Amino acid sequence: MKRNLERNMALAAAALLLALLPGRVDAGGQSGGGQSQSQVFELKLAHQTPETEPYHIAALKFKDMVESKSNGRITVTIYPAGQLGYDRDIIEGLQFGTIDLAYVTSSPLGNFIPGFSALDMPFLFKGWDHVEKVLQQPYMQDLYKTGEEKSLIPMALLPRGFRSVTNSRRPIGQASDFRGLKIRVIESPVFVSTFEALGATVTAMSWGEVFTALQQGAIDAEENSINTIHNERLFEVQKYVSLTEHIFAMTTFVVSKATYDKLPEDLRTLVRESAVEASRLTGQECRDQEGDYTQRLIERGMEFNNIDKTQLRALVQKVYDDFIARSDPAVSRLISSIEGTN
Predict the structure, then answer these.
(1) How far is CA 195 from CA 101, 162, 200, 315, in A?
(2) 34 falls within a domain
(3) Cα separation of 23 and 35, whole Å?
(4) Mean pLDDT on 116-135
(5) 103, 138, 256, 267: least buried by Cβ within 10 Å?
(6) Per-residue b/e over 39-49, b at no fewer than 16 CB within 10 Å?
(7) How many Å apart are CA 298 and CA 285, to the nearest integer?
């Protein structure tokens, strides 16, 4: 009995000692150590793409920055390649607080934060220089703030390049070539409306299903940035790249509001600054590497062709009209602000 008493007293002392130690916290749970400077936040960062893609490259940059600058107060574990689901699953995980951080495609985010759909307006961006200027504008911060009511805190946009159409049937040289073409698009009403206006047969589909659908002939075509076409090895199932450059590909760094609320103010600032810088640097790499990726795709047998975009722009005007008519005035103002940025 004496030995049991001694053992119980030792266990109680150990428990008391652990309770007094600084907390080590999974941000999805509760801290036992308070908001001290030595508290460690263990954060989960998810994305849907292979480790060769800009999503992962930016995630690695963010991890290095935030862990180093926080002196170990933040640790980040990255879950790439759809390990925690694809875009919609990841966004819902952020809302529920089961995922802390993510790089998600901006278009599906528009299903949760309507303003992000404005970035998908066809032929909205005039070129890389225009995109980079837009991302520096104060009105983009206003867009990010609209996510809070959906338990999402967007912090930065990663520009990846203009999206173009690939297919296995024929080069697309004019709008009539879209007729009868079965094309996969992102799960976004703007993408669906855009390609319906061009005359294609449209299927909105999660990215995880696309390669197999192309391989089996369930769809003929898809559309993506040049780096994604290369990194996802679409040259194995597609022959033609038609440089429609219809929509600019963006990825968004998003923090779960549940996680954000648990972080002390200095770490919130550090997470935001690291997200912005990691996204900016990776976006510049995407821009610099476009020519190299194009050459690699040509070497792998893909055929590139240009297309006159004048007719395409005319056909998608109705997409603008319908979107603006049903959108909140703030979203319409965002489109006007982007168009007016020089």
Answers:
(1) 32, 16, 6, 10
(2) yes
(3) 8
(4) 97
(5) 138
(6) bbbebbbbbbb
(7) 20
Nearest of 220, 218, 226 to residue 244 by alpha carbon: 226
Instruction: Examine the pLDDT at 48 and tell me if it is beyond 60.
Output: yes
Q: Is residue 11 part of a domain?
A: no
Dump pLDDT digits (tens) for 227-281: 999 999 999 999 999 999 999 999 999 999 999 999 999 999 999 999 999 999 9
User: Could you tell me the residue range of the domain that residue 143 belongs to?
Assistant: 20-340
Interatomic CA distance for residues 342 and 340, integer angstroms? 6
Residue-averaged pLDDT of the chain: 91
The one-letter amino acid code at 277 reads E
Angle (CA) 272-90-256 rounded to 5° is: 35
**pLDDT at residue 14 greater than cutoff 70:** no
Q: What are 263-272's contacts with CB under 8 Å, separation 24+?
A: 263/27, 263/41, 264/35, 267/41, 267/70, 267/73, 267/74, 270/66, 270/69, 270/70, 270/74, 271/66, 271/74, 271/101, 271/155, 272/155, 272/156
Distance CA(258)–CA(199), nearest Å, equals 43
Does any domain span residue 12?
A: no
Residue 38 pLDDT grade (very low, low, confident, very high; cuts 50, 70, 90): confident
Residue with tokens 């168009």: 339
Alpha-carbon distance 228 to 223, whole Å? Answer: 10
Could you tell me what percent of the chain has a pLDDT over 90? 89
In a domain, 6, yes or no: no
| Length of the chain in terms of residues written | 342
**Domains identified in the chain, total number:** 1
Q: Let me know the angle formed at the C-alpha of 78 by 73 and 80, rounded to the nearest 5 degrees.
A: 170
Q: What predicted TM-score, i.e. pTM, was given to this entire model?
A: 0.88
Q: For the chain, give me the number of helices (H) and strands (E)?
A: 14, 10
